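Hi W., the iron/sulfur cluster complex you wanted:
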Amino acid sequence: MMAVHSDVICPFCGCLCDDIEVTVEGNEIVNTRNACAVSRSKFLNHGLNRISAPTVDGEETGYDEAVEEASRIIAGARRPLVYGLSSTECGAIAKAVELAELVGGVVDNTSSVCHGPTILALQQVGESKTTLGEVKNRADLVIFWGSNPTEAHLRHVIRYSGMPKGLYTPEGRKGRYIVAVDVRETRTARLADQFVKIEPNADLELLQALRATVRGGKISTDEVAGVPRSQIEELARRMKGAKMGIVFFGLGLTQSDGRHMNIDAAVGLVAELNHHTKFLLTPMRGHYNVAGANTVTTWQTGYPYAVDFARGYPRYNPGEYTSIDLLAKGEVDAAIIVASDPVSNFPAEVAKHLARIPVVTLDQKITPTTMLSKVVIPVATAGVEAEGTAYRMDGVPLRLKKVVEPHEGHVPDEEVLDAIIERVRALKEEA
Ligand code: SF4
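Structure:
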């Protein structure tokens, strides 16, 4: 039997495109419409390389036995870490926080290695936020700073920021001026009207120079950060003259020298511009629900990531309770990883510590992290085989759809975490 699911949310990047059409024959996805190349490939191949059954020490076992072993590991640890969470839905994130609190552990998500500096800066200086819908309808100046959506968020420019015709942007691409600020000429830079080539690690200087120019100051050198004075003055003039401008910034800004101070400076520039016109900024979040991981963790603990429950109440200290720092110091003696692959992404020396301690991983596919895990529990894919809620990069919550049934015996992350919590609670009462 053939079924066509419309208005499906794509759970494969922070754009969370909500217009995907998915055709299912039997229980197999056979076609998609409106999906980008990444999304189409992920929907069509979601059944490939799946973990077929739970394992303990590499041996296949039953679901109950895997939950039991996982619970014993986490309940018996002195310094457990709960990590990942950016590629699962909000119900699972809430359960992960609950588990960390129950065992007095640390809960952290992948923003500690991507937009953590953004969060630190915005906590200090605030932010002028907007939605992608408002950008589509109003923005006539779009600046991509250290971000490359043409290769990382494939439909961003087409659907939200560059091409679409909106209420007050009826000319679409023709009515918008696009600027790319980057250290090299990316594909986004090639489609932009202006490419600002900046020296590596010099973003802070250029942001401050732009801010000073917008305020009416004069630059006394011929160039700043490798950008000629005339180009800085022209860009500042264009920014002040926009009806509505937006800065979409990525890891090129958050992970280069200056880190959270770069974002602080970007917020300062945008604040300065708001004396002249309407200007906003939005981080380009990568994992589809990393914004949800920050939001849910903040509801429950008051803090967005790097939260330690060792004293029975939440404490927040990025740089101390962030996963890489805890693992580098060898503090963690057990870890539960949900929907993430830190062994592929963390520095090798840090990932090595994961090989020394018992690791429990909840994932759909085989990854380097599942390969070194003591316990692996396969789960249903949120947004494909399970419903849930996710937060788009601009903070708008959207409801994920279930379009096919999961493999037999595979349940969502939330259900697995709930079972572990129940068993850990019982083990603690017995002790
Ligand atoms: S741009 Fe992102 S959310 Fe949109 S279809 Fe592609 S992968 Fe999915």
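Residues 413-430 form the longest helix (18 residues).

W.
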